[in-house]
Design a protein that fits this description.
The chain is an alpha+beta fold. It is about 30% helix and about 20% strand. It has two domains: about 1-35; about 40-125, Alpha-Beta Plaits (2-Layer Sandwich), CATH 3.30.70. It has two helices and six strands; from the N terminus they run αβαβββββ. The chain is elongated.
Length: about 130
């Protein structure tokens, strides 16, 4: 069976319209979700031990492909022996409402909530 050019073009237009409509609906849903309150995450760098548990938990939760991390821990070494120092900088995405990186922190993590946080004394993570 041979398809006529006119029928092919009609099908292509209908398919294109369906795909475009689905994309617009998806964007509209994301815009609605973005209107809500968003919280930032504050990390006490003096308490972070650089264990990378936060980065591993994030990678496991979101099943990112090999070699890709949404969160990571950066080490910055400076100075000369015997006064060499290493700074630890956890770099987190701050996108989650229930972040998998918070409960795995071994340094007295904080419990994150949707509308705020129950702050624990001397917590490493804080989401004000």
């Amino acid at each position: 069976m041979k398809i006529k050019r006119r029928d092919f073009l009609k099908g292509a237009v209908v398919t294109g319209a369906a795909v475009a409509t689905a994309g617009v609906l998806s964007v509209a849903e994301n815009a609605e979700a973005a209107k809500g309150e968003r919280w930032a995450m504050v990390i006490d760098l003096d308490r972070c031990i650089g264990c990378k548990a936060c980065a591993i938990a994030c990678k496991t939760e979101f099943e990112t492909r090999l070699g890709v991390f949404k969160s990571q821990v950066i080490y910055n070494e400076h100075g000369e022996f015997p006064k060499a120092q290493r700074d630890i900088l956890p770099w987190l995405c701050n996108h989650c409402d229930n972040p998998p990186c918070v409960p795995v922190c071994p340094v007295d993590p904080v419990d994150a909530e949707f509308k705020g946080v129950k702050f624990k004394k001397r917590a490493t993570y804080k989401r004000p």
